[in-house]
Write a structure and sequence with these properties.
The chain is of the alpha/beta class. The protein has helices spanning about 20-25, 40-50, 60-65, 95-110, 125-130, 135-145, 175, 180-195, 220-235, 245-250, 265-275, 310-325; strands at about 5-10, 35-40, 55-60, 75-80, 115-120, 150-155, 160-165, 205, 240-245, 260-265, 280-285, 290-295. Helix 3 (about 60-65) links the parallel strand 3 and strand 4. The radius of gyration is 20 Å and the shape is globular.
């Protein structure tokens, strides 16, 4: 059963593969209606370049709710770039337009016009080079929605990996991981696994920060002093939780059955997830008042316009957003 309202999809960095994978949506059998936010002329140009027979239909946020999508058509809310995009060459002049389009999509979800948001990748360094402070979609969406804490969750089939910290230099991670933060991340993870994924009693395994989860303090004090007390709090409240578990075993059957793993930092959890499901994994932002999913890959500037882009992750992101909207 499809959501009553369409999803809204942002096409991401126009110099990358975002436009191509969005064009591929027009030929995919998907369980919902959707509309794309991007520059219509750029999409038409990219379709010609890639030899894709897609009809671009301009619409508005107001009219999108009642539209009916046909195979081979892509309904687009226009956000026109000040400089013509070129494959493989991001332009800082287009950075603000990208963020304006993302804000338009968020507002449409917040006011109930759309069932959820799906995002193609942005190029963070180009946005920062334009003089706009930007650490990623997750943090931007939290700011737009007035969310105090947003949590990144990656999904590949039954494997779900949440992050206690996201886009931080590794040397800053230990100081960032306070008991309060881990407590808040865990609460969001438990709550959203119930409300967004329909898991009545979520089971979570929490990774340690240090090798061997600190080796009884010989390899770092954070596991025993910061992580373990929070895990014990949740266990005492009746939650199904284990940890801190050494990260090298947390993902294995030895750690027991689990609905999600909480990793302490970005590159502790994502290599496992991407190895298990690269090209089909989905990035989900928890803790927001809206549904947001995204692809598990970057802008792939080197293959933009070549026809080599795989839209599989975007297809899965759309399917998961539609499924979450039905919960």
């Amino acid at each position: 059963m499809a959501p009553d309202k369409p999803l809204i999809i942002t096409a991401g960095e126009p110099a990358g593969i975002g436009p191509e994978i969005c064009l591929a949506l027009a030929r995919e059998a998907l369980p919902c209606r959707f509309v794309v936010v991007s520059d219509p002329e750029m999409l038409r140009s990219r379709a010609r370049m890639a030899g894709m027979d897609v009809s671009i239909k301009e619409t508005s946020a107001e009219d999108a709710a009642s539209m009916q999508t046909k195979s081979g058509e892509l309904h687009v809310i226009a956000t026109r770039f000040p400089e013509p995009p070129e494959c493989g060459r991001p332009r800082t002049a287009n950075a603000q337009t990208l963020l304006d389009g993302l804000k338009l999509a968020v507002d449409g979800c917040m006011n109930g016009r759309f069932a959820g948001l799906v995002t193609a990748p942005l190029h963070k360094s180009v946005i920062n080079d334009a003089g706009i402070a930007f650490t990623g979609h997750t943090e931007f969406l939290a700011e737009c929605t007035g969310t105090q804490l947003a949590v990144m969750l990656l999904v590949a089939g039954d494997l779900r990996v949440a992050l206690a910290s996201t886009h931080l230099p590794l040397r800053e991670v230990p100081d960032y991981l306070t008991q309060e933060r881990i407590r808040n991340v865990l609460q969001i993870l438990f709550d959203d696994l119930k409300s967004r994924f329909g898991i009545a009693t979520p089971r979570i395994v929490v990774c340690g920060l240090n090798p061997h989860a600190g080796e009884a303090g010989h390899l770092g004090a954070e596991d025993a002093a910061i992580i373990a007390p929070v895990v014990d709090e949740f266990a005492a409240r009746g939650y199904s939780i284990r940890g801190p578990v050494p990260a090298d075993t947390a993902f294995t059957p030895a750690a027991g059955q689990k609905d999600a793993v909480l990793a302490m930092y970005h590159d502790q959890g994502l290599p496992v997830l991407k190895y298990a499901g690269f090209g089909r994994a989905v990035n989900v932002t928890l803790g927001l008042p809206i549904i947001r999913t995204s692809v598990d890959h970057g802008t792939a500037l080197d293959i933009a316009g070549t026809g080599e882009a795989d839209a599989g992750s975007l297809f899965e992101a759309v399917r998961l957003a539609a499924k979450m909207a039905q919960q």
